[in-house]
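STRUCTURE:
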């Protein structure tokens, strides 16, 4: 996953394949989270502090490619990263806005040294 570490309120470090880039932020918006852990304005956030409780993933994450997504995750867990990425190649072109497919695809690509730049591009699309 895209590594994000908090170094204090108003700062966030995005770790890219090249180097950490520090940027100023004024707000964070979390999607797919559950209520119960709201941050107060001006609250200091340190690395490792919980900032949100994420909702569980839905049972069905893709209308057309659920089988391929499950297969890719199994291959990833077996460390067959190239196969895991290949299984999702068609899926991410046909469902380019599906965050579950994009995350699994980017994660598999990241484990393949020569595909790390491709992984970074998929992660950028995922967080944009």
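SEQUENCE:
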């Amino acid at each position: 996953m895209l590594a994000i570490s908090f170094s204090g309120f108003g700062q966030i470090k995005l770790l890219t394949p090249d180097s950490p880039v520090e940027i100023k932020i004024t707000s964070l918006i979390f999607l797919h989270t559950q209520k119960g852990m709201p941050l107060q304005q001006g609250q200091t956030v340190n690395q490792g502090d919980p900032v949100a409780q994420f909702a569980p993933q839905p049972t069905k994450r893709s209308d057309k490619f659920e089988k391929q997504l499950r297969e890719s995750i199994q291959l990833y867990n077996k460390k067959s990263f190239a196969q895991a990425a290949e299984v999702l190649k068609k899926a991410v072109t046909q469902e380019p806005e599906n965050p579950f497919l994009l995350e699994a695809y980017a994660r598999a690509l990241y484990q393949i040294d020569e595909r790390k730049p491709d992984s970074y591009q998929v992660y950028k699309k995922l967080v944009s």
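REMARK: Confidence is low (pLDDT under 50) at residues 1-13.
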